[in-house]
Amino acid sequence: MCTHNSRRSHFGQIWAAVAADYYGIENVITYSGGTEATALHENAIYTLLSVGFDLIAEDDTENSKYTFLFGKNKSTVCFSKTYDSPENPKENFAAIMMCSDAEDNCPFIPGVDLRIATTYDDPKNFDRTDLQTEKYAQRCSQIARECLFMFSLVD
């Protein structure tokens, strides 16, 4: 979860799905959400494409849905939504808070079994700067490493 559900939370959704697949952990379904719905940001999409993901644009709307492909016939669908959206689980799930704003402004999430704060700097602070590509890549890589590490600990 992250405030706008446009960058870090999608990195988390995708990399958690990849990590679960890589470590053979079955029955893991990843989601993302925020305190408000916006859209999956084009810089996040570009970054994910640059590290090797393929995607299918499911529609062409203000808040488009994208299927990101990985592994052998594996995928996850990303689009911006709030944490309480009908597409997200209502019970038996863990909520990983990706930014301090979401951690501070979502004091109670109904149905959550485990809440983890892993606050990441927002790459949007570098939009339209010379550091944009580098900072998005850094954040994407950091979230990937930490998801892979977390899933490596699952028995």
What do these coordinates show?
The chain has a single domain (8-152), classed as Rossmann fold, CATH 3.40.50. Helix content is 33%, strand content 16%. The protein contains 4 helices and 5 strands. The longest helix is centred in the last third of the chain and has 21 residues, at 132-152. The protein is globular, with a radius of gyration of 15 Å.
Please supply descriptive tags for the structure shown above.
alpha+beta, 155 residues, Rossmann fold, 3-stranded antiparallel beta sheet, 33% helix, two-stranded parallel sheet
Can you lay out the helices and strands and say which pair or pack?
Layout: H1 8-22, H2 42-50, E1 54-57, E2 66-70, E3 74-78, E4 93-97, H3 100-105, E5 112-117, H4 132-152
Parallel strand pairs: 4-5
Antiparallel strand pairs: 1-2, 2-3
Helix pairs in contact: 1-4, 2-4
Short description:
The chain is an alpha+beta fold and 155 residues long. The protein contains four helices and five strands; from the N terminus they run H-H-E-E-E-E-H-E-H. The longest helix has 21 residues.
Spell out the helices and strands N to C. Answer: HHEEEEHEH
Might you state the CATH topology name?
Rossmann fold
Question: Roughly what is the average pLDDT, rounded to an integer?
Answer: 93
CATH homologous superfamily label: Response regulator
Strand coverage percent: 15-25%
Strand ordering within the main sheet: 1-2-3
